[in-house]
Amino acid sequence: MTKLIGVVGAGTMGRGIAHTLLRANYAVSLVDSLPEALGGAQQAISSGLAHDVEKGRLNAETRQQAFARLQISAETDAVSQASFIIEAVTERFEAKAEVFRKLELYCPSTTIFATNTSSISITRLAAITGRPGRFLGLHFFNPVPVMKLVEVVAGVETLPETFEAAADLARSVGKTPIRVNDFPGFVSNRLLMPMINEAAFAVMEGVAEANAVDDVMKLGMNHPMGPLELADFIGLDVCLDIMRVLYDGFHDAKYRPCPLLEKMVYAGRLGRKSGRGFFNYS
Ligand code: CAA
Predict the structure, then answer these.
(1) What is the per-residue pLDDT across 178-217, written as a single tens digit (0 to 9) for each?
(2) Atom 5, ligand 1: which residue's CA is nearest?
(3) pLDDT tens digits along 32-66
């Protein structure tokens, strides 16, 4: 029988996760309170599946079947039949907490709850539900259909069987799960964000222009994108938020956010999504 997975949040990450699940034969119930987010997600998933046909990963028939397994709804209770639910709403504790409080009301106690948070404490989110043993982090990377990694983040109370179910799910969609424990930034953002932050310091201090900083990392370290292009891709506001989580979480000055990064966010230069960040996209 086709397994149904719930995805809450139809932004960039939620739609990427839904697309990845659909092409791996899962049925997906995708919910978002914003109708325009759902419409955008449906379109993006449809063209993503069409791209899979071009690349030979699906044929016309399996593409159609995959798209038919997608249900969308503006109501959170639409995911109540799913045995595994992945939350991918905005990266704010209260927004995520509200989703999990609702899910707690609609879902049986056996349902596993996963959050795609990139930095919020899994243990803290788990504690607002009545199922901290069946709660964990499942951290995907953008663009989700392409990136191989899923960080599987165990909170203090996460049960071994919950971890195994999540790792199996990640493997079944072609990803490589890597276990990490719940500390600020996990592994990915604890390493990535200080590099991005330091690249911003290098620009601020006049060590080199933004494109030169990026070229050093692309040509010298074989990074597919330089740290500043990557920061624009992720969103400078997201990078700043994560630096603040690291700084607040460790109380260590080595994680202080770069003032240039702060200034750019205050100016609305958020990267690709706003048309301008370290580079211009207009
Ligand atoms: N959405 C979906 N697919 C995309 C995409 C997007 N935005 N951008 C590129 N792709 C796909 C392309 O369609 C192509 O797929 P196929 O091989 O199936 O055709 C594939 O990616 C490669 O694309 P290109 O050949 O056009 O370009 P590229 O070789 O330069 O690769 C890239 C593009 C994969 C984005 C590459 O530049 C890269 O890996 N960049 C780094 C990305 C990264 O580090 N992501 C993690 C960010 S951190 C995060 O997400 C988590 C967090 O907590 C902040």
Answers:
(1) 999 999 999 999 999 999 999 999 999 999 999 999 999 9
(2) 143
(3) 999 999 999 999 999 999 999 999 999 999 999 99
- Residues comprising the chain, all counted: 282
C-alpha–C-alpha distance, residues 227 and 203, integer Å: 12
Residue 225: CB atoms within 10 Å: 14
Indicate if 118 belongs to the active site.
Answer: yes
> Which stretch of DSSP H or E encloses residue 243?
helix 236-250
Q: Among 115, 110, 109, which Cα is nearest to 97's?
A: 115
Question: Which residue, judged by its Cα, is nearest atom 4 of ligand 1?
Answer: 143
What domains, with CATH codes, occur in the chain? 4-181 (3.40.50.720), 189-272 (1.10.1040.10)
| Pairing assessment for the beta strands 135-139 and 112-115 based on DSSP bridges | parallel
Closest CA to 89 of 46, 121, 66, 118: 118
On whether the CB atoms of residues 79 and 107 are closer than 8 A, the answer is yes
User: Who contacts 247 (Cβ-Cβ below 8 Å, separation ≥6)?
Assistant: 255, 256, 257
- 228 CA → ligand 1 middle, Å: 15
Catalytic residue among 29, 116, 118, 197: 118
How many angstroms from the chain centroid is the CA of residue 188? 12
Q: Checking phi first, is residue 206 left (phi over 0); if not, alpha (psi -120 to 50) or beta?
A: left
Distance CA 72, CA 29 (A): 6
Question: CA of 170: how far to CAs of 66, 111, 165, 176, 184, in Å?
Answer: 18, 17, 9, 7, 22
